[in-house]
Amino acid sequence: MEQACMLCHRSDADPDICGPIADYQGICAHLFCLLFANDVHPEWSEQGQSVQFLPAYIRHTVEQAAQRVCFVCGESGATITCQETGCDRRFHLPCAMEGRCITHYIPPHRSYCWEHCPQQQEEVAPENTTCIICLSPVEGRTTYGTMMCPVCKRAWFHRACIQRQALSAGIFSLQCPLCRNRNIFLLEMLFMGIRIPVRQASWETNSAYAELYQRHSSCSARECLCPGGREEAEAEGAQSQLRACWSQLQHPSSIGADRGCSSTGAHQTEH
């Protein structure tokens, strides 16, 4: 049975939001639950690429949180406090989106409740505006759940939709779905609490488009136009260069369609 995080008390929390769960000398916790917790002081490497936590700090945080209630779910164990001076609202990291809270997934990992969280410039959406990602209607203006590209101001999307896209695209590929602006858009999304993994896009690492780069090692045309035929050309050791037929170039998904060939010798044919 999977262990529950000692900070958020969840064993089924989304790892994309809470981070991987690990054992820190007998204390089980999510990475981001630790980074956002008030009384846990992380120790970063000189390159800032790895982080360590002292178990004594984690235990102290767990003991303190047991006496504090999450304003979203009403359960104890709330380790995150709104950074606004004088605000004492506390919450669990998995409860943040439900409570319309914002957490900055960049150092120093600040958190804000619904009342004090950063907001986009207020804009009114044109009538019948839909999310550019899921194509469902959005709210009539910028809100916590409805966001807009700060550059073109024509791309509207749901927070949940851009969050899913950010998790897939990663920090090196995320951009406005409409105007393709990257730098300003990326900073705005980070500021608005969107979690953007520091990695390549998922489609670059899982071979999602591998078939588009496939090339045949032999001619697959139904009828070979080479005068001596494909067998004779192979027997003579003729060098040939395969050329994708026009229909395949127009429709990349039709891998395996008839291909033409062009001989580097005297004969050149194309299907």
Give the strand line-up of the largest sheet.
Answer: 1-2
What is the CA–CA distance across the termini? 60 Å
CATH top level of the largest domain is Alpha Beta
Mean pLDDT: 79
Helical stretch tally: 8
User: Based on helices, strands and strand pairing, what is the structural class?
Assistant: alpha+beta
Low-confidence stretches: 246-260, 262-271
CATH topology (level 3) name of the largest domain: Herpes Virus-1
Structural features, described:
It is a single chain. This protein has helices at 15-18, 31-36, 55-65, 159-169, 183-191, 202-205, 229-235, 246-250; strands at residues 21-24, 27-30, 43-44, 51-52, 80-81, 90-91, 102-103, 111-112, 146-148, 156-158, 240-243, 260-263. It is of the alpha+beta class and 271 residues long. It folds into three domains: 15-112, Herpes Virus-1 (2-Layer Sandwich); 118-208, Herpes Virus-1 (2-Layer Sandwich), CATH 3.30.40; 212-263, no CATH class. The chain has a two-stranded antiparallel sheet. The longest helix is centred in the N-terminal third of the chain and has 11 residues, at 55-65. It is globular. The termini are far apart.
